[in-house]
Amino acid sequence: MKHHSMIQWFPLVVLALMLPGCHQKMAIQPKLKPQSPTQFFADGRSTRPQVVGTVARGTLQEDAVFSTGKVADLGVVTAGAPVDPKSILAQYTSEFPLEVNESLLLRGKERYNIYCNVCHGQTGAADGTIVMRGFLHPPAFWEQSPGNTSHNSRGLRYQGAGQLSLESAPVGYIFHVITHGYGAMGSYSAQISPRDRWAIVAYIRALQKARATEASIPSTQDNSHPKGAH
Ligand code: HEC
What is the pTM of this model? Predict the structure, then answer.
């Protein structure tokens, strides 16, 4: 009986011993896992850099000013390093690289109210809902009261351009901030196309101009009548 059972199990044991030799040939091939090191290439990296000039589909930037807001590039500016303030400002275009018309402004208004209003407020007074709930106060887009500097650019000052209001900051700089973000504010390049970014910049300029005009018009309100006396 014992002898018989051994004969019965023998093929199974042989089969079990043969199993490890059974796997797909393609499982072992000369390949490199992503980011793993290699001695094959001189720089030791298995992931190869893109060929210089590679452009991802749909991201061709034919017009540098239109897609960056910059006309020159100083590269990385270290805080405190001596730089000519003029060259900092000269990096950004002060002219719109597209026609500013009513439809662009309306588009800008719509996009501004979707993306910026929540923090910068409907009129650009830095009183958006998120800020009211405790988020860092951004600078206002226009002078809040005579002599108040809360509308000065922090980014331009940090780079060494001195005190400059966001009203006089070049349009290309505001475009640059939307594209890359600044400080506590994130980048909006993934959500907002370059054209829409320019539309928003144009709308911010409109908010600033509207405010400046309003401030220069003497109040026409007649306060001589007591309230409700009609
Ligand atoms: C989540 C809130 C939030 C949203 C949304 C937001 N911002 Fe800001 N923004 C900030 C804050 C906060 C700062 C100040 C950052 C700092 O000082 O660290 C700022 C700064 C700025 C500045 C000034 C940079 C400087 O040099 O001082 C500009 C211009 C600006 N934002 C434009 C925009 C525009 C345009 C949009 C919409 C596309 C937008 N922001 C959306 C929070 C926001």
Answer: 0.77
